Amino acid sequence: MANNFESGNLDGFTSSLGGTGTAEISSDQAHSGTCAVHLHVTADEGSLANLSTPLPAGTATAYADGWFNITQAGVLGNDVPYLRFFSGDIRVADVYRYNDNGELWLRTTAPDGTSVFTRLISSSITLSEWHHVAMRTTANGAASTVEVRFDGTLVYSSNQIATAATTLDRVQLGAEHNRQMGDSYIDDVVINAAPRAVSTASIRSAADVVAVGPDGTLWNYPASGQGTLQTRQKIGVGWSGLAKGFVADWNSDGTFDVIAQWKDGRLSVYPGRPTGGFAAARAIGTGWGSYHVTVGRWRNTDQYPGILAYDAAGTLWYYGNSAGTSLAPRIKIGTGWGGLYLTMTDFDQDGSQDLLAKRSDGRLVLFRSNGNGGFVAESRSAVGSGWNSINSITDVAGFTTGSSGLMTRLTDGRLAHYPFSRGAWGARTIVGAGWSTYNILR
């Protein structure tokens, strides 16, 4: 289901209203086009306004993505919700802006019915500005999964959420309680659903390690969410011709895909199936043999991940992915990037993706982005040294609950996790050994 509300209706949604609450198409605010839906709730008795989308029977995984502009917060001690996922009367997971301080919070419901709260962003979310919120939830009892992106940055990922729910039946915008005051404008909403997976072979989380073995077998090493990897699972064969691979939700359907850069220069996407495995490869380019690639949502307005890459001349280009399928015409970002090992991640966690560049002298240099496709005008600082002992770097989220970090391979074949928070490193942990012969996807 997708609705940008330009047709002037609420197709795909059911509205629940009470008292002074309203849900209407408005031209006062719009993220794209000329209008958005406006949810208005007051502190008056009985005031209520929300929109919900029913999910097919047996839905296990749901993905919701939209743009939100909260122009009026509510009373202290309360919140203004973004997205809520339900299983019957159980509110499985929801994200919201807390009125007291503007922070972003995640709330999940434990099997005993109590709420579990996790702060996702400690700074105040600005009112009267558009923010991009995306959330994927899989109801799987004690091993449920929740992933949250805010303004293009993965701020939470865990596949160890305990809940009583094993299916989902609706996604909701707005609150189900009376008098939950707030004014929210919502635009460009996409909601997808998938049934219970019959196979566990797909890539489950943004912390999984995916790698090609010496014989060309593609393996997934699921992350436990507690700082370890679980028993590997075979998810493909015939990958010996891979030069570099990348894991991303290329089409934003809630299931991880693989972007393959082959040794012969072909670039292709393998869409992940929610039931495990991948659909047939889709070609998205040729002549990529000399490019150094990193994948992610480079601009804050990107709905889908794109490709940032430099060519043999060291020119850095951005290839957008405007429809979740093929690449858009490239945009020149800069020159002089040759020889750098680039990793896209939001290192300072300001909501915009950055570049970490590993130099040949082992220094790791931070290039902060402005969220609009360029870089912050500032001197570049080194955030690490001695990184020439590392030959593989993958951005991961949720390797430990709520964490961000880099999964790296040392030149001696050990796998090491480097967590970071707001531009500061945590303590490194060694995850495993014997990875020298593996081609680790990024």
TrEMBL record:
Gene3D superfamilies: 2.60.120.200. InterPro entries: ConA-like_dom_sf, Integrin_alpha_N. Signal peptide: none annotated. It comes from the Bacteria. This is VCBS repeat-containing protein.
